[in-house]
Amino acid sequence: MDERLSSEVTSESVNGTDYLEAVNEFLSNPSSFESFRQDVRYKRILEHVTSQGGINYLLHLKQYNREIFDSLHKFWRCDVVGSPELLSNVLPKIQISPSTLRYVKVVSDLQILFENLDSFRVVEFGVGYGGQLLAADSWWSIKQWDLIDLPPVLQLTQKYLEHFVLNLGYRCLSLNQVVVPTAADLVISNYAISEVPRESQMRFLKKVLESTPRGYLTMNSGLPWSNFSPGKLKIQEWLQLIPYNVEVIDESPNASKDNYILVWGHKPGVIQSAFKRPSWLRV
After folding, report:
1. What does the CA dihedral 153, 159, 163, 167 come to, rounded to 10 degrees?
2. What is the DSSP string of 123-149?
3. Is pLDDT above 80 for 84?
4. What is the DSSP letter of 179?
């Protein structure tokens, strides 16, 4: 991969790691792919939710979305590929990975915020191996899901997803391949958009966010005291540049004190009834 290109579009958490080296190995080595979700190099970036973190997500689901909590069996297929570490002896007859529980928690948030995603067209920035897509596909009949990431990551995502029969159709795109304006109903990102350089953030804003009426972005940069903030858009800039009524809510359970979520296009009044605002919010 061209070094100038990779430094421009990859996230800060990926730069300087052997993450992409591991991804390329999973693509070329079948035995390595069979257990890729336990690879130490990969777990530095993804698949690193702890057992306690998984339990926290379970407790959150039990409290805020009993319908999904009682239907966790619908997400079992998310863990049949890649040999992830599973939570056992936590729920009767159900074994599930902590990382999948995080994806399920996002599904829960999306249901509370936007209700039914059936027939939606979704864009996701920073896709890992496609776990969020598969979790959402296990719950709704989504129409289309566009996955935006680096080419090797997208190849791994496709290799993972093609093990399943999906309800939705999906496309793998680099940010350069995204057509403006994007005809999407919802855009999501689990940290990734907050970790790439400002130039890529602005390009994503122009190509996707400005034309997408609903959004759910989990962020770990943009705050004045955040270690990830230099060279990236500040929270005030996100709120000014996204041309919708954006609200800021807590990430719950909170993976880091500097994390927060930007949402827009959600049901009226749902923030006040189901989500908390960060205690530091003064924007």
Report:
1. 60
2. EEES-TTSHHHHHHHTT---SEEEEES
3. yes
4. P
Residue 91, beta-bridge partner list: 94
Fold of 3-274: Rossmann fold (3.40.50)
Question: Within its chain, how far is the Cα of 277 from the centroid?
Answer: 20
Q: In this model, does residue 120 exceed pLDDT 70?
A: yes
CA–CA separation, 206 and 209 (whole Å)? 6
Which contiguous run of DSSP H or E holds residue 208? none
CB burial readout 245-277, b (16+ within 10 A) else e: ebbbbebbeebeebbbbbbbbbeeebbeeebee
Residue ranges per structural domain of the chain: 3-274
pTM value is 0.93
Q: How confident is the model at residue 2 (pLDDT cuts 50, 70, 90)?
A: very low
Structure-token match 């035995």, residue found: 31
Best CA proximity match to 62, nearest among 103, 105, 20, 95: 105
